[in-house]
Structure formats: structure tokens, C-alpha cells
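ok trying again, last paste got cut off:
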Amino acid sequence: MQGLFSSVWGISAIIGPAIGGLITAGVGWRWVFYLNVPVGILAATLILLVLHEQVERREHRLNWLGSLTLTFGVSLLLLAPSTGVQLGWTSPLVIGSILGATVLLAVFARSEAAAAEPLISSKLVRRPIIAAGLAIGTLAGVVMYGLTAYVPPLIQGVMGGSPLDAGLVVGAMSVGWPFGSIVSGRTMLRFGARPIVLVGAGMLLAGSLLLLEAGQVRSLWYTSAATGVTGLGMGLITTPTLVAIQAAVSWRQRAQATGLVQFSRTIGGSIGTGLLGALLATAVGPLASAILDPIGRSSISASALAAERTQLESGLGWIYLILALAALGTLRLAIRLMPAVRIGEEAAPQSPAPDAAHRKRDAEPGRRVPRGTPRSAGETPPTMGEP
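nice, full thing came through this time. structure:
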């Protein structure tokens, strides 16, 4: 079901960039956001009318201090790169943002340790399958969001393509993603999560390496192939890690575990994209934004346009190199950290062997062990989580 769910998301992401390109080229980029209003209203209406769920009411004690410090700490962390480009990296605002983020996130960590119901349970994060999934998801998020943000400037600015061309090339990533999600959702039942995640991380690296040459090849088909391979790798990574994490925790912990997976990918992508944007802004000239616009670049002289394209291509080359290194880091983390587990099982140290007394007890003639009860101390049968 997670594979099917991811495929629906992927198919929508194919249509979205293409429609966005048409809207941007036709009536202007602001209408991309206006279109979200009726779509959001329709989605909310469907949830209200169709989604019927059984809710178990329990009293909770939300860690308000942790919620606020995490929110503002991450916000300051995202603010620092953008203000660094505008005001300079030695600006008091930039330095203050970094220091403020550090202090707030430290307060968040301390408040979580003392909270009765922490937002991010340290017990969950320390479990091998969850720790591996979060680490892999963070770096994979850098690649995914970085590719989505910094392939369009290559298509429009360096290759001279239209917003529609850029949308179609980015949409190729979403062709591979749903296919990888559906295939991985089926095959992990037979092979487990680890080999599929390793293959996905390898394809993520392969797509990133192909993207390194896109500026030299300057072909929409070649660049689409690079993004498609990367999307296939993302599909092979995300579904097995998410399902394995969900199956390794109890029903009551499943929402928190799922939220952690999404948060790791989003925060990795957000911070990574912000830092990469700061790097690109320092590498390109003042006319970089104009050459992305098919109308705006017609007013620039041929020599100035060539110079700006060269600067933009050079800056994007460094960004694609960083994305390739992030993909390599994803593969390395998958090799080192991803446990060999199947659904409902978690790699853990072997339980100590039962002592002689337990073996004798279990071997007594006629002794019945209740179904689902461990046969000896320290032994726990694998479970699928609480139904």
C-alpha cells in the first residue's frame, strides 16, 4: 500500500511540473500559487467527507518548549544561508542566526530529554532500523530537493529552454519514482529491505553522476534520463525504509516514526537546498535571473549572455558535484547502517542463550507454552507491530 501511495504522489508530480511550466510561460508564475487554492479546498473537502477513522482518545502532554525551540531553531538555520548571500557571511544577522539556531536546538534537545512525551523519542531514534532510515533519508532528501531546485536553471539558463522544458525534465524523476516504489513494495516482501535500499542508493549515485555531464552534453533527453534514474533510486529507497520502520514499532508509535522519516527527508532537503542556493548566488553574475526568462534574455547582448551562461554553468557544476557526494554518502550509509531485516523484524544483538534451567523447563513433557509467549528469558519472537 505504501508503494501504491508513493506512485500516486509520483504521478501527480509528473503532471505538476508540466502544468507549472505551461502556467509560468503563459499567464505568469504567480498563478501557480493561485491554482493551489481550489486544489487545497477540494482535498480538504474530500478528507471531510470520505475519511472516516476510529480515533483512540488519550490525554497527551505536548512538549511546548520543544515544539517552539525546534520550529524557531530550524527557521534560523534556514535563514542564515539566504541572508548570507544578501548581506555577507560576516553580517551580524547571519552570525546571530547561526548562534541562535545552535542555542535553540540545544534547548530543544534538553527539553526533549526531560519531557514525559517527547516529540522525537530518543528510544526510537536509537533503534538500528530507524537510525539508518533517518540518516539515509536526510542525505537522500538533499539529492531529491537539490535536483528539483537546480535542474531548471540548467535547462532554462544554460540550454536556453523554456519553463515547460524544465518542468518535463524534472517530471522525468517522477516517472522513475512511482515505478521504483511499486517494485520495491513487492520485492521487499521476498528479499527484505537492505538489498533494495542498496540498489536504490546505487541508482541515486548513478543519476547524480550522469547529471555532472549534463552541462557539457546539453541535451534534454540526456538530462531527463539522469533525473529519471535518480527518481527510480528514490523510489527504491523511500518505500522499503518507511515500511520497515513502520513495521518495527508498535501501532501507537507508528505515527511518530512515520513523521520522523518525513521530517528527516524534508529538513535535509531544505537545509541542503538553502546552502546550495547560497553557493550558486555567489558564483553567478547579476544577470543570472534574467537569462532564465525567455523574454528577459532577448534584451541581453550576445557577449553578456554567453558570459552569464558560462558563470551559471560553472556554479551549477559545483552544485551537481555536491549532490553526487551526497548520493555517495547515502550509499555509504546504506552499506554501513541498513540492517538486514524483513517486515516486522529489526536487526538487534542476539539474545543471550537460555540457561539450563529454562531449557529443562521448556523440555518438560506435557508443558504447554502459551501462544505468542517467549519460550525463555530474553527471547522475543519477531512481530509485525500491534494490530
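cool. Residues 344-387 have pLDDT under 50 and may be disordered. DSSP finds 16 helices and no strands in the chain.
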